[in-house]
Amino acid sequence: MADELLSGSEGTSGSLPTVKITVRPNGPFRVEGPFQLVDVEGKEWDIAGRAIVSLCRCGLSTKRPFCDGTHGKEGWKCDASPVPVEPVAQG
């Protein structure tokens, strides 16, 4: 079963668009929804027109930060179970 993280960012109409990040078993992060992808220098990647993006998790892709399927060819496995996250204090 894939783990999912839901997050939102402010929209112009006051509603919060939903971004869905799915951790694929032994594969990439699948990102769906409106989001920005920024490199270490603060430059935004051009992902216009892409409703779904797969981001490399194995570090083997030749198209990083995007997944190119190399994890499958190389037999990359991620056996780590999700780590519980401490609740954030409200207030």
From TrEMBL:
The keyword Metal-binding applies. One of its GO terms (cellular component) is cytoplasm. One of its GO terms (molecular function) is 2 iron, 2 sulfur cluster binding. Residues 32-77 form the Iron-binding zinc finger CDGSH type domain. InterPro entries: FeS-contain_CDGSH-typ (IPR018967), MitoNEET_CISD (IPR042216). Keywords: 2Fe-2S, Iron, Iron-sulfur, Metal-binding. It holds the Pfam family zf-CDGSH. Gene3D superfamilies: CDGSH iron-sulfur domain, mitoNEET-type (3.40.5.90). This is Iron sulfur-containing domain, CDGSH-type. It comes from Granulicella tundricola (strain ATCC BAA-1859 / DSM 23138 / MP5ACTX9). The lineage of its organism: Bacteria, Pseudomonadati, Acidobacteriota, Terriglobia, Terriglobales.
